[in-house]
Design goal:
Low-confidence stretches: none
Oligomer: single chain
Helix content: 25-40%
Strand order of the largest sheet: 2-1-3-5-6-4
Number of helices: 7
Number of domains: 2
Distance between the termini: 16 Å
Structural class: alpha/beta
Largest sheet: 6 strands, mixed
Number of strands: 12
CATH class of the largest domain: Alpha Beta
Shape: globular
Order of helices and strands: EHEHEEHEEHEHEEEEHEH
Length: 253
Amino acid sequence: MRRTGLLGRRISYSKSPEIHERLYEKKRLEISYELFDLPREDIRQFIDTLSRENILGFNVTQPYKEEIISYIHELDHTALECGAVNTVVVKNGWRIGYNTDVYGFAQSLQDHRVDLRGKEVLILGSGGAAKAVYTALVKQGVRIHMAFRSETRRKEFPKALSIRPLASVKDLRPFALVINATKLGNIQQDEMPIEITQYHQDTILYDLNYEPMHSSFLRFGTEAGLQVINGESMLYNQARKSQELWIDAFNIF
């Protein structure tokens, strides 16, 4: 059987197998989707056995979305622009990296009818997920602000209007949308990424973490009467796009 899956670490909570298997079933395709939950030192061996193990491709999640680039032969323009890979196509030993998170996030905003034209947006975090969100918002011409801990990453977000320490963010009133792209809020570390003291009633809170369904960040928003968005819609949209890449590469239909 042809195989696909998700490469990451401590990902037993992932809903990706459920989503992908449902999509494959709708297409009547006999392709499996598995979790490749591997420590960093096992990635090279995994990469070396891809073709032998009949793996058509795989998704990538934390903490490997940036690190996986060193194992890729070719990057598509979005992954190159983004500096992070979440989807890999493997064909004849050649590995091509894509980023379908950019599409997934943009599509999720459309699904929730969020119009950000001319508005201020704040992204919390600086990792692979934050890079995808940043890239999607740059394409939309949004006024982007960033907050994260690492000073060394500032140069990776040249179009951000401001970059500040994560701990300094308390007032959300200037922002139409605040996106949590940090690990804080996932099922293993459900904590508030920032201490919110002020907000506008029209501010939308978006947590890229989708498990738990209602993170501390989103619970705060719900209790404050704000619109909140969970990361599952982004996950579903990027999954559909990933499958299109694998299916097209191998002319499965």
